[in-house]
Amino acid sequence: MRFISFEHGSTHHIGAVLGDQVIDLNASNPKLPIGLGQYLRGGGTLQDLEVLASASKAQHARPMNGIVHGLPIADPGKIFCLGLNYLEHVKEGGNKVVDYPTIFMRGASSLTAHNKPIMRPTISEKLDFEAELVLVIGQKMRHATKHTALEAVAGYSCFNDGTLRDYQKRTTQWTIGKNFDQTGGFGPCLVTPDELPSGASGLKIESRLNGKVMQFDNTSNMMFPVIETIVTITQAITLEPGDMIVMGTPSGVGYARTPPVFMKAGDTCDIEIEGIGTLSNPIQDEIATE
Hints:
The chain is mainly beta.
């Protein structure tokens, strides 16, 4: 099943997607926490939400058309990101192939929801797109094995790892270039693992800038797939409900093109992953403040 967060007055509700309808689960059960992150951290499962959705009355359904999306996980915990996880992307950047994943982190303030703008900051014009698979953790996990790793996954979604390339390259640590406010698109929904192949492998993934395909690959080509990545991270760090892992981008990014192509105000960037959906974000310029 697919779950979304959507605006409801001054707050957000959890919705279950059934065709072209959304079941307002908070209206169906007013005791339900506001937000999937809070729900997962409280021990809830998406399987329980599926049961609630199937038992909900028609009065709690609303058309998907007109829904204003929020972040699938509005209050994430740790956000781990992989760099250099597709071989052709490694090659296009002139990087060395490594035998251990390149892992960095994002903060929650860098995220933006489906149909909400990705903001190009006033101090840089080198805002790049990166189509990525993202998984959300639903179960606490430490010292995962290849047999237990997927038990930690609540669901999968799409991500645009918007990157300020000039700031990324100012230092060997990528944190600043990857964490400008409202540069990481996330959504539109969270898809449960039973709707996808094991580890979300074998899915077509692409980015489109103003309708033009810029990146196209398959998640089976990740050098460090979902299971291996969870095993690696949990050797050091406990994964907890509401944490996210962003799985890296294929080749075709803007900085590696001749001439380079960067996102600018007025553009629209779409990230589509087979079986999950399409994340769409307009690009806006940040308003300068004194």
